[in-house]
Amino acid sequence: MKSASRFRSDHAYMRQLINWIGTIALATSLSMCYIWHQVETRELMREILQLKHQKEALKKESAYLQVRIVRLAEQLRNETMAMNRFELDHAAVGQVVVMDALGTVDAPMAMVPTGPDVRAIAGKPTDDALILASYPTARVDTR
Questions:
Q1: N or C, which terminus of the chain has less Cβ within 10 Å?
Q2: Domain range for residue 113?
C-alpha cells in the first residue's frame, strides 16, 4: 500500500497529464461530432432546396399539361360537333378531296399519299387550295 501511495505522490504529474489528454480527446471528439452534424445539416438543406425547385418545376409542368388537356378536349369537342353538324365522315385511307379558292370541287379521287403536301413545301398560300380529308364523297359527286 505504501508503494501505491508513494507512486501516486511521485507521479502526480502523470495523473494531470492523463486528465489533460482525456479532456483534449473529449473536446476533440465533441467538436468533430459538431462539425459532422453541421456538414450533414447543410447537405440536407441543399437537398431540400433542390427538391423544392423540382416540386415547383413539376407544379408548373402539371399546370401546363392541365391547360393542354383542356385545349385538346375543346378541340376534340369542336371536331365532333363539326363532324355531326356538317355530316362529315372520316376519310378513307389515302383519300384526298381538293377544293380551290373559287369553290369548285375537283372530282374526288382516292390517292395513296407518297409524301408531304407539295404546296406546303413550295410555300404556296393555303387559301389557294384547301384539302378536305373528311368531306363525304357522295356530296362531292352531287354538285
A1: N
A2: 95-141
